[in-house]
Design a protein that fits this description.
Blueprint lengths: L1 E2 L5 E2 L4 E6 L7 H5 L3 E7 L7 H9 L10 E6 L5 H20 L12 H20 L6
Antiparallel strand pairs: 1-2, 3-4, 4-5
Amino acid sequence: MLKISNTVSIPDDEIELSAIRAQGSGGQNVNKVSSAIHLRFDIAASSLPEVYKERLLQLKDSRITKEGVIVIKAQQFRTQEKNRDDAFNRLQLLIKTVTVVQKARKATKPSRSAKRKRVDSKTKRGKVKVMRGRVTD
């Protein structure tokens, strides 16, 4: 059971795990041992709330396929257990990003005094630059 929040959790049978051989260096161990983990999670068939499903499907993330399946490949560690934990943590983090709702931005305008200060500083700076010119008689 993967816990997302106090109220939301994902049962283990909804997450498909498969062990595969890791890429990259590692000597003979890489060729013999399947230490990398391939995690697949079908968003539409999951028990997540509908709001989370919609937000996940709207994400522009390369880990989410067109069919709505999250695919995570964990091969950072040398042991299968650590890679499995890493894959679960990455899935949990991805789903948690969807749970947070962004506040709507309120458009603001600078105050009258702020505008005046800005213009005054610009004119002051311009006068300083004019004074740097050549002195003519």
